[in-house]
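The passage that follows is intended for readers who have already worked through the single-chain material. We present the inputs for a multi-component assembly, then the predicted structure in tokenized form, and finally a short commentary. You are encouraged to pause after the input and sketch how you expect the pieces to fit together before reading on.
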Amino acid sequence: MYRKRIKLEKLLNKVVDADAAAALIKDGMVVGMSGFTKAGEAKVVPRAMSKRAEKDPFKITLMTGASLGNSIDANLAEHGVLARRMPFQADPVLRKAINAGSVKFVDQHLSELAEHLSAGQITPVDVALIEIAGIDEDGGLVLSTSVGNSAAFLASAKHIILELNTAIPEGIRGFHDIYRPKLAPNREPIPVLASASQIGTPTVHVDVDKIDAIVVNHEIDSPASIFDPDAETGAIAGHLVDFFHNEVKHGRMTNSLFPLQAGIGSVANAVLQGFLNSPFENLTMYSEVIQDSAFYLLDSGKLTFASAAALSVTAEMLERFFTNLETYRGRILFRPQEISNNPEVIRRLGILAINTALEADIYGNINSTHVNGTHMMNGIGGSGDFARASRIAVFVTKSLAKDGKISSIVPMVPHVDHNEHDVDILVTELGLADLRGLAPRERPPVIIRNCMHPSYQDMAMDYFERSLKGNGQTPHILGEAFSWHIRLKETGSMLPK
Amino acid sequence: MYRKRIKLEKLLNKVVDADAAAALIKDGMVVGMSGFTKAGEAKVVPRAMSKRAEKDPFKITLMTGASLGNSIDANLAEHGVLARRMPFQADPVLRKAINAGSVKFVDQHLSELAEHLSAGQITPVDVALIEIAGIDEDGGLVLSTSVGNSAAFLASAKHIILELNTAIPEGIRGFHDIYRPKLAPNREPIPVLASASQIGTPTVHVDVDKIDAIVVNHEIDSPASIFDPDAETGAIAGHLVDFFHNEVKHGRMTNSLFPLQAGIGSVANAVLQGFLNSPFENLTMYSEVIQDSAFYLLDSGKLTFASAAALSVTAEMLERFFTNLETYRGRILFRPQEISNNPEVIRRLGILAINTALEADIYGNINSTHVNGTHMMNGIGGSGDFARASRIAVFVTKSLAKDGKISSIVPMVPHVDHNEHDVDILVTELGLADLRGLAPRERPPVIIRNCMHPSYQDMAMDYFERSLKGNGQTPHILGEAFSWHIRLKETGSMLPK
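Having made your guess, compare it with the prediction:
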């Protein structure tokens, strides 16, 4: 059945099995693979690579769009195939290897990997390993459920291996908008003027002579692990809806707001779902992923258009998308992440950026990545691309973690991914802190009072007030700034015994 | 003599003395003033404001382009006129007031203030107080030695006070390129395609009915306090020239490099001066300020074009510019800082961004602003605008400060302005660390070996090696991470007794 999807006949003889394709990947190579948050990664070739490594150990640098599904990262890490990994991951097994130092993880802004490749700032790709849904008569590649960095890898690679996924409906053709910025110094503006701007082509055009192998798979993406909205995420959404409603009342935006971006994960997904019951109309989204919440908003009519680099949905939602493609055509576009996350477009469109914080400090600095300042969780992802260039940068987190043993608001974050210059609004289930126009010293009272759990408030105010005696633009007591984290490590709780 | 500079005759009757103009500024107002690194600030009206405050105390929020010359910030701070100041300053007296908490300082990316004003994210401007060199027949305002945020303030303000500076040659008309981005959601690309792109008008068009007063001054800008290049800045320049030369050899750029940005201050100025003896040709600059070094490069023919938001030069260089305007016409443009520092343009042009670090840590995080983590030096300025969106982000610093009592490379910076994601190259007089593509754990050995002064190297390697035992993506010992800073505060030196 796969033959009709390869419309350029001369490529039919490139079809091989996964083992044969995996054999093309040599020790020390840089592999650029499709895949963005469990959507559209190559599936059978990576497994064949792991299998091969059992007898014939080899290591590669693996670049992707973002994280991968189907435990591909776990599988490759367990088999020792990964020497170096960039720009994002979210796998527990790989995370462990990264934190143990056995896999080198280069945690990058998601817009930048393609940029660095184009500029020759990092080692070029030897092999692009890309999942597709079909090949046009002219050799144009129809991508699958993500675009991510696939177009950049295909352009950079010496060799191309394709995984043709016959489980993806052919009707996905037309949901991709492939556009790559020219190389400096001959660059032109990226012509995206709105979320719905279609600026590129539906397929990726490559030098077909670089295609060394095509492997057929018939396997859907593994589902996003999204938790249902709960009382706390509902409260966060409520505060944010109130805030935007107030911005509308003050004439700073219309009732359609500005294009929304919501980070990957349960909290951001739940927050967006909260917009279902909002007074806003004709919303648009210019984001990196389309999560379940975006489909609910599209279905309700609240959201008119969603632009992203990939899907990131549950099994039910993937099924719903695949069986109702025509309903969504013209209302969803998948773009390369160098476009979805491009600071040029983000600033131009006036994006409202909503991202999740691991923890925030009393001055509004955000740690998005490092547990207790040292151990990698997932990576910075696109949060830096969006927060820095956005119209309003919102960070959300529940006020407590680990049954209250961890406060998500701390005196000083031990790792800074977003600093006070880039954080406009901080929200927990308890409330919202509007930091716009506030000097650092004005922030702790607002953050502590509005966002922090009462069980930590006195301790935080005490720290801040004692810090003030030392003066400064951002008062701190350096010998004590990490005392909560040190106590957590020593006793299992940030609360004193 | 001033009358011939006011070509729109109906404005001639708006000329008043400084005291009368100062009286228009009321307690609690937001004043948007011209001025960017000692260039083009209003001069006589601020002094009249201070004088008035002696008898009639009042406080304002003062917004500017960046820092101010002629001790205006000191004078206003001493007279208690400043309640709030943004987005940058570099004055010792004001700095003291900020660190004591008596002036609230909102330290912002320089590209963002105009953006926040346009979007209504911060309180709008009551009075724009802008230095000009003349008024056209059609009411168009010819700005003086900086553009900065002047166009944004003029657009936002309810009332306008102008200072007409007759010490500025009238020939400065034509050196400004005034262009303002439209308001979202109707924005279009900013059409800058190269440093030399002229996209706007030579004057600022305002509603002339908003002009309440014109005050004449005849006073040149105070000189930039630039130290001459020394052996260490020469060595930093040498490492950087070698690095770029190597990039050229590897085919990543031509011998004209990409447009250069160099931060404000002595080190960046000296580094740029080092390019005089480089093998590069036909360089261009797309920066925030044009310092003396840029003039040397223009005069030598090494630099073909310099775009910036302001001048920032010594008295001799200002004289040279004023007396040789025709030599520089068509080779220098002053732009609004929302354009000079715009992430869209910075990424498009592929800027090579060179900024000064106060200190860096062994993982490549940069503190640009906070002495010992708490006390404000100047502000982040444009370093964040440029580093994040640049092609290559370089940070430079001398390896030691205070006769060796301070190491500019530390285990962990106690304030993060630029994190590891945004720092490609770190340079001290001792050498250069190329951090591109390195995972955090790979960075300390390179930074310590290449950039750190030998008197601190063993201590830093010892810290890093002991940190490794705790594992993690970015190993640290939180209880010890700031021990160097704490020792400095307690004993006056980071070195153990």
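Commentary: The mean pLDDT of chain B is 96. The first strand of chain B starts at residue 30 and ends at 33. How closely did your sketch match?
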